[in-house]
Specification:
Its cofactor is heme. By secondary structure, this protein is mostly helical. The protein has a domain of about 110 residues: Fumarate reductase/succinate dehydrogenase, transmembrane subunit (3 helical TM bundles of succinate and fumarate reductases), CATH 1.20.1300. It is built from five helices and no strands. Helix 2 packs across helix 4 and helix 4 runs antiparallel to helix 5. The longest helix is centred in the N-terminal third of the chain and has 29 residues. The chain starts with 13 loop residues before the first helix and ends in a 21-residue tail after the last helix.
């Protein structure tokens, strides 16, 4: 019968040693990443529930969400910043979580580097595109048929 050593007994098996690649690196990055996950999680809860409340509970609820609704919201700098914070925090929070999973489960260095490179590129692309959409969105645009897509927030033509 094989005995299982008590945790922190100082005796590590071969499988336990293999996963200690970050130990002793002297970097405080993992501590900051851990702290970021906790703080961003709390802020994200507030941002997401605020977003859901405004979009689903106020006014006509989900039936009112259309181009005009989004255009009206994004005509306010407050909602642009709110949605920008939600986008950035959600993407960075998720990227950090997936990075941790990759570190835990990708055993070969080449696989780990490839997966993390793809993850970081996808994160940068999504954050860049999302930021551009939020700040370059034209709520008073003209539709494909030449008819202005105007709401009460647009100046008269």
């Amino acid at each position: 019968m094989t005995a299982i050593e008590a945790p922190r007994s100082g005796k590590a098996s071969k499988s336990q040693v293999k996963y200690s690649r970050n130990k002793g690196s002297g970097s405080k990055f993992e501590m900051f990443a851990w702290l970021f996950m906790r703080l961003s999680g709390v802020v994200l809860v507030v941002l997401i529930f605020g977003h859901l409340f405004v979009n689903l509970m106020v006014g006509e609820g989900v039936h009112a969400i259309d181009f005009g609704f989004v255009a009206g919201k994004w005509s306010s700098p407050f909602w642009q910043i709110w949605d920008l914070l939600m986008l950035w925090l959600a993407m960075l929070h998720g990227t950090n979580g997936v990075r941790t999973i990759i570190n835990d489960y990708a055993e070969r260095n080449g696989t780990r580097i490839t997966l993390k490179t793809v993850l970081y590129i996808a994160t940068v692309v999504i954050i860049t595109l999302g930021t551009l959409v939020i700040f370059t969105f034209d709520p008073c645009a003209v539709g494909a048929d030449g008819v202005p897509l105007q709401g009460s927030f647009c100046p008269a033509p």
